[in-house]
Design brief:
This protein is α/β, with parallel strands linked by helices. The strands form 2 sheets. A 5-stranded mixed beta sheet has the order 2-3-4-5-6, sandwiched between helices. Strands 1-7 form a two-stranded antiparallel sheet. The relative contact order is 0.14.
Length: about 300
């Protein structure tokens, strides 16, 4: 069954959870039990049944029981339909390790002030001749899964992305295809119980515009309003991501990129068993009541994008 949930939130965050996501501490256990009971009656879903996993999804859906069920089903379905992102995630596997050691994505240590989490992504650091976007996505998602599991405040305060496109080349851009972006957008927006608060881009090369416009077309309206493109204007960035949250390399005071990367590698190694075990939690479409879900249905691209050429 997994352990019983023990709240680690500060009184201030408990209050925010009440105000912003309709969490009623007295009703929490009953809501978790309701979802667990529902999961037991879904022949096609093999889900984690522990309190904490279920609570994360309840929080991500502002405690709407129906939305929580939809999101859980969607999460395990996406996971199953994307084996290239969710299988073989051993942090000590040679190929996976090489990707993780590049530090393509890492959560920055939190600031004492607002406790929100910023993920720094540096997609241009990988060699596009020897690695693929699937390798990149695997590193991103393994990191997301880990912080969701370990950082309770994430579900309350949300997170923002800081994407440094500095080293990106045309070779990188050409690998970022519309189907891949549609798949990622669907997964994050419909499958994950997270609260994305902002998307900040810095050091964006010319090749980036085309790619970004395609990605933007798959974003929900709410998310489009939270996008900030700063170019090389660091002062503009600091208005969104305070300096004290940023690593030294970005003009901040929050440790070096290397220190932060090594810290997260240790955290991934410490949770290796959890990650390996995680593969078994998925759906079996042959047992789904009604019509099985397919990749084409979930991640299919509208006709208009098929003929989009990236110059």
């Amino acid at each position: 069954m997994g352990g019983e949930y023990v709240c680690t939130l500060s009184p201030e965050l408990v209050q925010r959870a009440k105000d912003e996501i309709n969490e009623v501490p007295e009703r929490r256990a009953a809501d978790i039990e309701h979802i667990r009971d529902w999961l037991k009656h879904q022949p096609h879903i093999n889900a984690r049944m522990d309190d904490w996993t279920i609570l994360r999804f309840l929080r991500g859906c502002k405690f709407s029981l129906e939305r929580t069920k939809e999101k859980l089903d969607m999460f395990y379905t996406c996971k199953t339909l994307c084996p290239e992102w969710y299988k073989n995630r051993d942090p000590q596997d040679k190929k996976m390790r090489a990707i993780l050691e590049l530090g393509l994505v890492m959560p920055l240590p939190r600031s004492a002030k607002d406790q929100s989490i910023t993920l720094l992504a540096r997609p241009g650091l990988r060699n596009p001749n020897t690695t693929s976007m699937d390798d990149m996505m695997k590193a991103v998602l393994v990191t997301l899964d880990l912080i969701q599991e370990e950082e309770e405040s994430l579900g309350i305060v949300g997170f923002q992305m800081l994407l440094d496109a500095g080293e990106m080349t045309l070779a990188h851009a050409s690998q970022i295809t519309p189907p891949l972006m549609k798949k990622f957008a669907t997964l994050i927006q419909d499958g994950y119980p997270m609260r994305p608060k902002g998307l900040n881009y810095i050091n964006t090369p010319a090749a980036f515009d085309t790619v970004f416009n395609i990605f933007r077309s798959f974003m929900k309206e709410k998310m489009k309003k939270r996008v900030h493109i700063h170019g090389s204007d660091m002062e503009s960035l600091y208005k969104q991501v305070p300096r004290e949250m940023l690593p030294v390399e970005y003009g901040g005071t929050n440790g070096t990129v290397e220190e932060i990367k090594n810290y997260w590698l240790q955290r991934l190694d410490a949770r290796r068993d959890w990650l390996l075990e995680d593969e078994k939690y998925c759906v079996d479409e042959s047992k789904r009541p009604g019509k099985p879900k397919t990749s084409a249905e979930l991640f299919g691209i509208e006709g208009s994008f098929r003929k989009l050429d990236v110059d």
